[in-house]
Specification:
461 residues; mainly alpha; two-stranded antiparallel ribbon; two-stranded antiparallel sheet; 7% strand
Length: 461
């Protein structure tokens, strides 16, 4: 146990925490806007199935929000326990940004969440809709501040170093640092795709359980159409993000592309097994000059390889594999969403094979998200703040055995919570399907039912 590297264990522990945490804000960010869409459709049309969809998915939103909050609090403690050098060096930047997230976003969400979850029938329809809008806006505002800090760690700007500490010279440059617009847009689109496949997948599960009512049809169609619209945008933004990364973090690009030697006309390596010992790719399948073309828009453009960065470069294999996993899942999402949108056009029932695929891909967004997040964060190594603070210089002196023990406890707890979350989501879907089947006379036409108050119904101050 004493032979374990405490720095590696600290990185693994923080990675485990943030991997678990990021799963839930990714859903809550976009789910809030989907709930607002369902609510506005109900208010406009008075059709009960839109409110039924709202009432089902708001339960999943509440569960997701709770797990996101709890795991976020745990993660923040690790800044002090595992990475005291981080706050000692850049606390003047990180501290206010984290505080802004709490003051402007979390408090807004927490205040309005009660009205959103329990206020309908107790407050006016307009106020309930407003509360849903403010919760959705709060989740996005929270992402704004967190991504601002994370982007600054990759492309720091607007500061000066005084006595070994970063001091802000321009908050505008700190927040809107060179990579911020690309990272924020990329993250918001990833959130939308995660939620769209969750919508489609859980609705497909209910359909296969026999619940084929208007609520399920609306949720399924919403998920497919949303994914079909967002994935092309994500591909375009991803390309722009890659070009920005090439400018500011070329070592990361070299690792992602599996380019070991600086060269003109670099190939696009489709498949390979990077070998750090020989600094080469085994079993390589590549397209000549293609990487230079899409990275520099010149077939003979020069791309820096790993050899250009000495020892200060990220590990190649994890980035190379994670990047291809992210792209592969994204292309699968593109194919499935476009086919599903076409296949369910004009109210057509989804094919049984499509339903099975959608159920299997309910949490496909998580796979692409985690793979992309690993590319981003591992790609910054060995830096904690790019060019400013090495991870090794920020780590604590906690002995390796203690970190290993808490890491094992974290992993066990997170695995149990993750399995519980997924189980509860599918349980809620099965329960909703069973409830629908037990009420065969319930209308699916969109007419108001007893459990859905139409717009203009009773209002209570």
């Amino acid at each position: 146990m004493d032979s374990l590297d405490p720095l590696l264990l600290a990185r693994m522990q923080f990675a485990a925490n943030i991997t678990f945490h990021i799963l839930f804000p990714t859903i809550s960010i976009s789910m809030g806007w989907v709930l607002l869409f369902f609510k506005l459709r109900f208010v406009r049309t008075g059709q009960a199935h839109w409110m039924d969809a709202y009432q089902f998915w708001v339960k999943i939103f509440a569960l997701t929000f709770a797990l996101g909050v709890v795991s976020g609090i745990t993660m923040s403690f690790q800044f002090g326990t595992n990475w005291p050098g981080f706050m000692n060096t850049v606390g003047n930047v990180a501290g206010p940004l984290l505080a802004y997230e709490v003051l402007t976003a979390f408090f807004l969400e927490a205040t309005m969440l009660g009205i959103m979850l329990f206020g309908r029938g107790r407050v006016s329809e307009r106020l309930h809709t407003t509360a849903t809008f403010l919760v959705a806006g709060g989740t996005t505002l929270s992402a704004f501040w967190i991504i601002a800090l994370n982007s600054w760690m990759h492309t720091p700007a607007g500061f000066e170093m005084i006595a070994g500490q970063a001091h802000v010279t321009s908050w505008w440059q700190v927040i809107f640092n060179p990579s911020f617009p690309y990272r924020l847009t990329h993250m918001l689109l990833a959130s939308g795709l995660t939620v769209s496949f969750l919508l489609a997948g859980i609705s497909a599960w209910r359909w296969r359980k026999g619940d084929q009512g208007a609520e399920v049809r609306a949720s399924l169609r919403t998920g497919l159409v949303l994914a079909a619209m967002l994935i092309p945008l994500q591909i375009g933004v991803g390309d722009l993000h890659g070009l920005n990364t090439l400018q500011h973090q070329p070592a990361k690009i070299a690792a992602m592309e599996g380019i070991w030697q600086t060269q003109s006309g670099a190939p696009a390596v489709l498949f390979a097994w990077p070998d750090a010992a020989t600094q080469s790719n085994r079993f390589e399948v590549a397209v000549p000059k293609l990487a230079s073309f899409y990275l520099t828009h010149d077939w003979n453009g020069e791309i820096q390889g790993i050899d250009a960065f000495g020892s200060q470069h990220p590990p190649v294999a994890p980035l190379f594999i994670a990047f291809r996993l992210m792209v592969g899942v994204g292309l699968l999402m593109l194919a499935v969403s476009w086919f599903g949108t076409w296949q369910t056009r004009a109210g057509r029932a989804p094919h049984a094979g499509l339903l099975r695929v959608l159920v299997a891909m309910s949490f496909a967004g998580w796979v692409a998200l985690v793979a992309g997040w690993y590319v981003t964060e591992i790609g910054r190594q060995p830096w904690l703040v790019q060019g400013l603070l090495l991870a090794a210089d920020a780590a604590s002196q906690v002995p390796a055995p203690r970190i290993a023990l808490t890491l094992a406890m974290y992993l066990a707890l997170y695995l149990a919570l993750l399995l519980a979350y997924v189980s509860v989501v599918f349980h809620l879907a099965s329960s909703a399907a069973a409830k629908h089947l037990q009420a065969p006379n319930a209308t699916d036409s969109g007419a108001p039912t007893a459990h859905s108050t139409p717009a203009g119904g009773p209002k209570h101050a």
